[in-house]
Write a structure and sequence with these properties.
Elements lengths: L1 E3 L4 H9 L2 H13 L5 H23 L2 E3 L4 H22 L4
Parallel strand pairs: 1-2
Helix pairs in contact: 1-4, 2-3, 2-4, 3-4
Length: 95
């Protein structure tokens, strides 16, 4: 079980960086984007999906969430990582 606190930036970055929902949604939406401006939409959708997976994990007991405030950091970090994954998907899109 992972214990999450709001003042542990390493855990927050790791959770945001390796969230499989964020990676999958951002990369796939980045591949299907036909304009670079749509990468922001892909990053936002990936961040929402990743946060939903994080929330479900907390509800079923996979994560022990003790503090409030880390959720906002995870959402914002997932947006940044989602933007990077969407850009990678956009770079490798079929032309």
């Amino acid at each position: 079980m992972i214990s999450i606190t709001s003042f542990d930036p390493v855990t927050l970055v790791l959770l945001a960086a390796v969230n499989p929902a964020t990676i999958a949604v951002a990369f796939l939406m980045g591949r299907s984007a036909d304009q670079w401006q749509k990468l922001l939409v892909a990053a936002f959708a990936a961040s929402l999906t990743g946060f939903a997976l994080y929330w479900i994990g907390g509800q079923i007991g996979l994560f022990a969430i003790h503090a409030v405030g880390g959720e906002a950091a995870i959402f914002m970090l997932q947006f940044v990582f989602g933007l990077a994954w969407a850009a990678l998907g956009y770079w490798f899109r079929p032309r």
